[in-house]
Write a structure and sequence with these properties.
Layout (H helix, E strand, L loop, with lengths): L3 E7 L3 E8 L4 E8 L8 H16 L1 H4 L4 E5 L5 E3 L28 H10 L1 H6 L2 E3 L1 H10 L4 E3 L5 H4 L2 H6 L10 E3 L3 E4 L2 H6 L7 E7 H8 L8 E5 L3 E8 L12 E4 L5 E8 L2 H11 L6 H10 L8 H13 L6 H6 L8 H24 L8 E5 L4 H11 L3 E4 L4 H13 L6 H8 L2 E5 L3 H14 L10
Parallel strand pairs: 1-4, 4-10, 7-8, 11-15, 15-16
Antiparallel strand pairs: 1-2, 2-3, 5-6, 9-10, 11-12, 12-14, 13-14, 16-17
Helix pairs in contact: 1-5, 9-16, 10-14, 11-14, 12-14, 14-15, 15-18, 16-17
């Protein structure tokens, strides 16, 4: 007999909930949009969205045996001694976060940013909670920091770095390893939702780690294109193959799987820029027709080479900009051809994906396919990606793979699987494969040869 668990992922633009059983089948899934510019109310909206998602899952949620969360990060919420948010949540993509080369911690610069926003909230906070940990703390009353693996600890925070930043270590929740039990669902949650009282809540992790687990990118050489507001190509590598040099453009971090690490190429704003184009075109309410026109468009001809190249350089610059800059590159007037602007953006991002894949290949692993997870699941965009990369794209049966990764953590914690790697492999299943089109791939390769002649046919700057 299969058992089922409730999993939830807090994205930047939406919260997703699913009931997933021990065979890896989703019995139900909902997506609750999140607002923007919420300030102090952001964490409250996460909670409201989660409870709404549980309500919409109804009887499916009433039969689950455990809960796990994942979420965006590094993001921080100040929480008072009563478990209530006492200041604004600061998200990973806040433009005011200043990276500190002296810190290994990815989270402490976010806490510093919180202090700039609301020093009173920082002084009154009992805990500085991560994003998914906030929901876990609210429904259990137990405040922990999710730890994907022991190697991850210093990337979250260490006592020495906490003190060096002027904070008290006692205000940072103790760490709980992925899949460990951190508490149980409290009675107040069961009174207002179908979620059973007393079922265990297990530690989850950051969304990108959970997406790797949900796509079973747990074996060296497997690659995941994790998409959403941001995007990253992630490869699993053996610890002994960790590059000693020439890692420019790669973010190397520990993996949740023992003996492995992850190496990633980041495209920080790809999904956010698509959303801006949809909003500018007035297509947010009915995006399907707009995206159909966008991705049914023929490959841009040579007359757009300069526009695509300029968009690539703009994306590489790290400069903050809005989608109107892409529209300007097409020569269109404001409010004019947003479909064309979207196409230029798509082909520029395709170039950067190719560049990222080449950096990944330099690690020495043959790449035969790319598994895909997340919000940028438009079939036309995936077909274009396959054509650019000249590789099959493998779409998992549970497309928001963070949710499947959470299920792997739950079932490992409950003892159904011996470790997280076994759970990920067992729960993963392929939903669809998108093959590259040889003719379209050749046209795109010719464009890259024109734009980047020194690196042709594979490498891009």
């Amino acid at each position: 007999m299969t058992t089922a668990v409730l999993t939830a992922d807090i994205g930047t633009s939406a919260l997703k909930c699913a009931v997933i059983d021990s065979s890896g089948t989703s019995r139900g899934q909902v997506r609750i949009p999140l607002g923007t510019h919420l300030g102090a109310h952001r964490a409250r909206q996460w909670e409201a969205a989660f409870l709404k998602g549980v309500q919409e899952l109804g009887s499916q949620a009433s039969e689950v045996t455990a809960v796990t969360f994942s979420g965006n990060g590094p993001s921080i919420v100040p929480v008072d001694s009563g478990g209530e948010p006492c200041g604004p949540a600061v998200l990973w993509n806040d433009p005011g976060i200043v990276k500190d080369p002296e810190l290994q911690s990815l989270f402490l610069p976010v806490v510093r940013r919180l202090r700039e926003y609301d020093s009173a909230a920082v002084r009154s906070a009992r805990w500085f909670s991560g994003c998914p940990e906030y929901l876990a703390g609210r429904i259990t009353g137990s405040w922990r920091t999710f730890l994907p693996s022991a190697e991850f600890a210093s990337y979250i925070w260490s006592e020495g770095e906490i003190l060096s930043c002027g904070f008290s270590p006692e205000r940072f929740p103790p760490m709980a390893v992925l899949g460990s039990r951190i508490g149980a669902v409290q009675s107040w949650v069961s009174r207002i939702s179908p979620l059973p009282k007393g079922i265990p809540v297990y530690a989850g992790g950051p969304d990108y780690i959970m997406a790797l687990l949900g796509t079973a990118v747990t074996v060296p050489g497997r690659v995941c294109d994790r998409t959403g507001t941001s995007e990253a190509l992630n490869i699993c590598i053996a610890h002994e193959d960790l590059p000693q040099s020439n890692t420019s453009g790669l973010r190397v971090l520990p993996h949740a799987v023992e003996g492995c690490r992850t190496a990633a190429v980041l495209l920080p704003d790809s999904g956010a820029l698509f959303q801006q184009i949809l909003a500018s075109a007035g297509a947010l309410r009915q995006p399907e027709e707009f995206t159909r026109r966008l991705f049914s468009h023929q490959i841009l001809d040579e007359s757009f080479d300069e526009a695509v190249l300029s968009a690539v350089k703009l994306l590489q610059s790290g400069e903050s900009f809005d989608a109107s800059r892409i529209l300007q590159l097409t020569g269109s007037e404001p409010g004019q051809n947003w479909v064309l602007a979207g196409r230029v953006l798509s082909e520029a991002l395709g170039c950067l994906l190719c560049a990222g894949l080449e950096r990944i290949k330099q690690l020495g692993y043959p790449v035969h396919a790319v598994r895909v997870s997340g919000g940028q699941m438009n079939s036309g965009w995936n077909r274009l990606k396959a054509d650019f990369l000249r590789l099959p794209l493998e779409i998992p049966a549970i497309r928001d793979a963070e949710l499947a990764g959470c299920a792997a953590a739950c079932f490992t914690g409950s003892g159904l699987f011996s470790d997280i790697a076994e759970a990920s492999e067992s729960l993963y299943s392929l939903g669809e494969t998108i093959q590259p089109d040889a003719a379209r791939s050749m046209v795109l390769a010719q464009r890259m040869a024109r734009l980047f002649p020194r690196q042709f046919p594979q490498k891009l700057p």
